[in-house]
């Protein structure tokens, strides 16, 4: 039989259709996904059989969760023992767990201890940074003053003026004999190449990428490490939403001013940040070169006189459940007075949206702020539609007009604040590796609320009248975006 180009195309088409069917069967019977995500992927594979095949390869695969971080059993048992001790102290309200806000929000703290082993730390001094220049000026000063070690991790490090300045500073510290470790995400920081770290590596610095590309192609567009951490000399820690790039200083013409939040922590919580960094670092290096705890500089406990309790809560595609979503939902259902939420993406699942509806109907006030500048079009329209849904139930929703809002904060009753990398969408809840600091402190909560109220002067209220006046074309884009929201 003569082999023609047409015959080859037919054979390849049937092969891809067969693979689509295989993926569909795998999604339905073998992968633990929620129903909405399952249907979304089936629709993609059914209506876009050729394109859907490649979309699934890059975006749809799950990772194996069992012992993803390869923690030794002895260390795992020791950690669980410490968690059990804290649970007992929390339940008995013994010092230091007799802190007034922990007594009031005990169930929230308990949820995080039980679900994700988020140890409670005390004696934390926390500074809230709302501005990019302020954050990076302080970070660079702290790195310049470092005398022992710098461990730094970002989702995005751009190859621009700010990114190059950071790498030069880290190189200088390596020249001084400090141990410098830099971890970046291979997709988020896809503009970086080995040559950009040549001097840093030559002077003893260590650089690794999370889930690196192979042969120039990265088959994991999802399951990215979205965390942003910096631990300096084991005494100072940074966590929040700012990545590294000129746009985060407000220098991008499209986005303009970049509104975000970061925390600078000195105190016992730095130990928990370092524990998380080590897990991510060791996941990115060969087994024989994995770092040991003795290779790091650890904080001295109890050095801060400020008694802000903090839990460092993490979640990822390796998690057995959506820890960070559960924490935020618990915060919403536990609130009695007012909830402040800022997020660039508001694409909650049914459980999160229901929690908001129930809170509103029960008399809790919700104030939500989202950006009015899209960085991802489908995500923008889905966010807009979901925010409008809360307006129907009485929420006050604002669209930030002066630049881009990238803050990821949720504050309840002026007492407890979640600040970190967690967006309110499936990508943060299920697909990416995320981290947030849960702070039981009125000063921190007030700082975030005050910033929200200042932002109201730069925002417009989203009313039902404003929402209902949208064009048919916008309504169509919203409908498509909401249909795809489980996989956005």
TrEMBL record:
Cellular component GO terms held in the UniProt record: plasma membrane
Entry keyword annotation includes Membrane: yes
Family: Belongs to the phospholipase D family. Cardiolipin synthase subfamily.
GO molecular function, one term: cardiolipin synthase activity
Catalytic activity: 2 a 1,2-diacyl-sn-glycero-3-phospho-(1'-sn-glycerol) = a cardiolipin + glycerol
Official protein name in the record: Cardiolipin synthase
Membrane topology of the entry: Multi-pass membrane protein
Gene Ontology biological process terms in this record: cardiolipin biosynthetic process
Taxonomic source organism: Exiguobacterium sp. (strain ATCC BAA-1283 / AT1b)
TM spans (from-to): 6-30, 39-59
Highest taxon of source: Bacteria
């Amino acid at each position: 039989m003569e082999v023609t180009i047409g015959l080859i195309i037919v054979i390849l088409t049937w092969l891809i259709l067969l693979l689509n069917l295989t993926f569909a069967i795998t999604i339905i019977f073998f992968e633990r996904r929620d129903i909405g995500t399952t249907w979304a992927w089936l629709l993609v594979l059914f209506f876009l059989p050729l394109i859907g095949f490649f979309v699934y390869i890059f975006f749809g695969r799950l990772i194996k969760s069992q012992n993803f971080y390869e923690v030794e059993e002895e260390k795992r048992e020791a950690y669980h023992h410490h968690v059990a001790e804290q649970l007992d102290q929390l339940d008995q309200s013994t010092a230091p767990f007799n802190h007034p806000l922990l007594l009031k929000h005990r169930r929230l703290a308990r949820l995080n201890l039980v679900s994700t082993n988020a140890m409670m730390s005390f004696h934390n001094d926390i500074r809230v940074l709302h501005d990019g220049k302020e954050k990076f000026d302080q970070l660079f000063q702290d790195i310049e003053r470092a005398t022992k070690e710098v461990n730094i991790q970002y989702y995005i490090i751009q190859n621009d003026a700010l990114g190059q300045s950071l790498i030069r500073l880290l190189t200088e510290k390596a020249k001084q004999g400090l141990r410098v470790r830099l971890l970046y995400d291979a997709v988020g920081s896809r503009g970086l190449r080995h040559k950009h770290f040549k001097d840093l590596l030559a002077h003893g610095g260590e650089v690794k990428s999370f889930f690196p590309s192979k042969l120039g192609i990265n088959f994991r567009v999802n399951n990215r490490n979205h965390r942003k951490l910096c631990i300096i000399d084991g005494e100072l820690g940074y966590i929040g939403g700012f990545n590294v790039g000129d746009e985060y200083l407000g220098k991008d013409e499209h986005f303009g001013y970049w509104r975000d939040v970061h925390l600078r922590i000195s105190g016992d919580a730095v130990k928990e940040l370092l524990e998380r960094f080590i897990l991510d670092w060791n996941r990115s290096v060969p087994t024989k070169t994995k770092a040991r705890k003795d290779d790091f500089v650890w904080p001295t406990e109890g050095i801060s006189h400020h008694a802000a309790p903090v839990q460092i809560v993490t979640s990822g595609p390796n998690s057995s459940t959506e820890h960070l979503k559960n924490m935020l939902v618990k915060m919403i259902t536990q609130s009695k007075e007012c909830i402040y939420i800022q997020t660039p993406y508001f694409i909650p699942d049914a459980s999160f949206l229901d929690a908001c509806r129930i809170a509103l109907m029960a008399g809790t006030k919700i104030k939500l702020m989202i950006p009015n500048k899209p960085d991802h079009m489908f995500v923008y329209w889905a966010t807009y539609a979901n925010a409008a849904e809360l307006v129907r139930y009485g929420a006050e929703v604002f669209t930030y007009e002066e630049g881009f809002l990238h803050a990821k904060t949720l504050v309840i009753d002026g007492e407890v604040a979640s600040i970190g990398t967690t967006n309110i969408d499936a990508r943060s809840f299920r697909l990416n590796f995320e981290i947030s600091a849960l702070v039981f402190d009125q000063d921190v909560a007030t700082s975030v609320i005050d910033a929200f109220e200042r932002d109201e002067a730069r925002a417009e209220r989203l009313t039902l009248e404003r929402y209902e006046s949208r064009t048919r074309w916008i309504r169509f884009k919203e409908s498509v975006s909401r249909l795809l929201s489980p996989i956005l």
